[in-house]
Amino acid sequence: MVDIPFATVDELKARWPDFPAGGESYAEVHLEDASQFILDVCPSAVEVSAGTRRRVVCAVVRRAMQASAAGQVGMSQMSETAGPFSASWTASNPNGDYYLTKQELKALGGGGRPKALSIPAGDVGWCPSHRLWCSLAFGATYCSCGADLTLDEPLWEA
Fold first, then answer.
1. DSSP 112
2. 64-88 pLDDT tens trace
3. Within a domain: 1
């Protein structure tokens, strides 16, 4: 098992030059929560290097903490008008949620491209009359087409 959190507050500060003053205890809680979030979303993270986990958790925490900061950080859209004085901002992460980018997910060993599924053709289980889409074809321990009851033809899914 890996140690949680994946990074310390000092390691976060080293990667974030504008770390908010007095935010150490807040960052410490975020580092623990984000580390657990990473394990929940991408269990394969335990198999990657400690440096990769450290880098990713610092990025996740930085995004979450910047969401609550004032200013233009974390804005996906901004609009200002000089007269008659209107302004509009849309935050990209208004609640400070944790999320992984595609690059981070890939670095943690997750987010691979989907692969094609193949279903074995022919006999399924001990009865040659099972349908190809019977639960037995997908590794179940029960028949969903009913061929095991008749020993000849499926009762359902015909």
1. P
2. 888 766 554 555 566 777 788 777 7
3. no
